[in-house]
Amino acid sequence: MSDSIEQIECLIIGSGPAGYTAAIYAARADMKPVLYEGLQPGGQLTITTDVENYPGYPDGIMGPEMMDNFKKQAIRLGTDVRFGMVTSVDFKNGGPQKVIVDGTKEISAKSVIISTGASAKWLGIPSESRLNGSGVSACAVCDGFFYRGSDVAIVGAGDTACEEASYLSKICSKVYMLVRRDEFRASKAMQHRVLNTPNIEVLFNTETDEILGDTTVEAVRVSNNVSGEKREIPIKGFFVAIGHTPNTEIFKPYIEMDESGYIITEKGSSRTNIEGVFCAGDAQDKIYRQAVTAAGSGCMAALDAERWLAAKED
Ligand code: NDP
After folding, report:
1. 151 lines ligand 1 (CB under 6 A)
2. What is the model's pTM?
3. Among 124, 143, 155, 303, which one is least packed by beta carbons within 10 Å?
């Protein structure tokens, strides 16, 4: 191996709550972690506003500020946080793991923690990005509370959309569920729950044309794709729940994943099918997807990596 290749004990890929928590634990365990932030430093929380459900912040905290705090804590404890994007890997059982950053820099890591997260899918209409964070959200559990007592709409027909519609129905006065086909994709149990909630109105064959409002959401214009009928529905919040894409593409040739690209970890641990490669956060979680669960799994990954390295050196 060439002398110019940097040797790292613990490489963390991704800078959301999972990555920074892994970094905090790895640094305290003297594993000298190096963390690459990726394309969206701070992860999904940097595009939300108030975070009111992360324990320890009685008055809530803004998402970007919280991630800045995570970063400061990781750095103070000794993490080498770097701006850069891991562009390819070459993993082998037991390592060392070859990792390429920004297409050029090669690193050799004894252990790797993947915490690259997932990205919400969006409809792709201009008003959606213009009003993102001002009434448009991809996380009902994060942002639903801001619309308590108001009317909201949610687009999607899978388990996530049904779960989030049920959640919103408890806080909001009315929830319009916009379903593009004439049926749900969600499991029967979830469908049943939605259809039996009096303040959820499901609009089948309905597509979103535009979200209306200058600075905040005021209404949504929808059209029925069978009858062609258009209507405007006054709402304060517009939620998109049409799925997420885990940011795991570069690991595909090496790491076991489910059909949607979520990394499979051993039950009750962060271990992947490659010894020495661990995974935490939304890259392996399509169910909970919360900052606090991601942080918890980041802690698990650092502890698993530490134990694995210690056992290897025995
Ligand atoms: P899914 O991929 O299952 O569903 C996405 C939904 O969004 C589909 O109904 C799809 O419509 C709709 N959609 C996609 N693009 C658009 C668009 N441009 N306009 C309108 N609608 C659109 O994603 P989920 O996030 O719901 O679920 C992901 C996985 O996680 C699933 O396997 C699910 O079972 C699982 N899950 C399980 C939970 C649990 O067990 N408690 C909770 C949440 C998720 P169409 O049907 O027409 O394609």
Report:
1. no
2. 0.79
3. 124
